[in-house]
Amino acid sequence: MANKEIPYKIYLEESEMPKAWYNLRADMKNKPAPLLDPATGKPMTAEDLSSVFCEELARQEVDEDTAYFPIPDEILSFYKMYRPAPLVRAYCLEEKLKTPAKIYYKFEGNNTSGSHKLNSAIAQAYYAKKQGLVGVTTETGAGQWGTALSMACAYLGLDCKVYMVKVSYEQKPFRREVMRTYGASVTASPSMNTQVGRQILEKHPGTGGSLGCAISEAVEVATNTPGYRYVLGSVLNQVMLHQSIIGLEAKAAMDKYDIKPDIIIGCAGGGSNLGGLIAPFMGEKLRGEADYRFIAVEPASCPSLTRGTFAYDYCDTGMVCPLAKMYTLGSNYIPAPNHAGGLRYHGMSPILSQLRADGLLEAISVPQTEVFAAAEFFARAEGTLPAPESSHAIKAAIDEAIRCRETGEEKTILFGLTGTGYFDMYAYEKFHDGKMTDYVPTDEEIKTAFTYLPDMTKYDV
Ligand SMILES: *Cc1c(COP(=O)(O)O)cnc(C)c1O
Predict the structure, then answer these.
(1) CATH topology of domain 25-70+117-230
(2) HSE of 399 in the Cβ direction (CA atoms, 13 Å)?
(3) Which of 209, 348, 383, 419 is deepest in the core (most CB within 10 A)?
(4) SS3 of 23, please?
(5) What is the pLDDT of residue 460?
């Protein structure tokens, strides 16, 4: 074993915890493109957005200048129940890989909902409550976001209506029950409750649903129910802002021991954990104070950053949400069944998309059987059972560490371990039984999906 002058787990004292979220946009020279109104093609103001989102969240969404947003005391108290999240030095993994690399991971699975999503869920529920709303609606795919939001709403006494993608509603009954334990109502999507749900069911009876469709349903219910707003667990700028807590804590913990990562890696679904993890480090890079490599890892079956196009697109299947400029596979793209439910979104955060377009963020995609092999290797080395989503980052971190073994370089690698895999044992079972497949879409399929991108020439702006 290496000489452990760095502890296995680096914690922060309460007094050392971040008191403000960091808004990376403030330091970006090329700002992410604004959300557009799908009816007019005009940029949406905070006021336009506040018919769907809470007012304060709408303000955060469009603010690209304020660098720091103080975290309200109530949210800080909630954070103290499960934060700081540990920063772990993966000594056992390093040993097993026989690598000279130093590997650290920031573990966000340390709360009942099991992922980083709680960091933004509590913020969004707090602003809804402060605005005097009765409740919020949302969608959930794999179930992590719905669980996180249920917990946050229960804490604040808000109603929570979750539209859960039907396949996962059926495959993950325990996730559903956790949400109900925290008082949320959970509906399988598409449902007969909404106009968009009924339309989709008529066109595709027996469909297992999709995230884009569940979003459309949740938005419709929010806009038609007085006292409700819609909240979203990823992609949006406001979510990146709240998730900056991950990177701020990680950086504070590393600074305590004078550790400087060379490579920072995260899985990317809608981009919130990666955006949050890299935020303060990317800020330094943008200000010319330090340099890092940043790597986004996505599934080969849903490769928005690596094979998508950088264009304005619909955020949902029903085309009711604002248009976002992002790397996208097209809102009609239905990824092949992949067990990392949280990484199946067709688009990507506009902030991360802009960083990618500017050459500041690398992106790779990996096939799922290799991801599960890495997950199992990690579980056996480090003890923690990782979520399939998080295991994309594990896979990339292990590959970098192996490269270091081959070149003898002593790089420092930091990756985000976003959650635990207890509700994903069906996927692990498939892997163990050798029944997991690696579907990679053909260029032809991706090109076909692009034909559904909105025709921007129709807007006179
Ligand atoms: C939702 C989720 C992700 C992916 O979402 P991002 O917004 O890209 O972070 C990754 N890991 C876990 C455990 C998740 O629940």
Answers:
(1) Rossmann fold (3.40.50)
(2) 16
(3) 419
(4) coil
(5) 72
